[in-house]
Histidine triad (HIT) family protein (Celeribacter persicus), 125 residues
Amino acid sequence: MPYAYDDQNIFAKILRGEIPAKPVFESEHTLAFPDISPKKKAHVLVIPKGPYRCYDHFVQAASDAEQLDFFKSVAKVAELMGVAESAGGEGFRLITNSGAHSHQEVPHFHVHLLGGEPCGPLVCD
């Protein structure tokens, strides 16, 4: 299935510098910044710099270097935010949504990293 990427989505605009964001972390292939509507004390969005619609698009189309950089960057952000156990934190949750049934709001692959306090149940009805 081909993935249509909308280059006018908010994350694409952030990556082009059209909308400001305060980076928490940046690498060659990844950008992380605070969510504008945080749900926990620590709530950071981690996005690849490439034009990927969702998780399955990313793992099918991104290079090995992009994928490795992205997932290592997620771990680095958890450490920087102090929520990783390796940094003395008590853990964190990663959430990614893919498609309409998941309520994906921005059509650019991203991970929500949440922590700094208990996250509660995994799924709510």
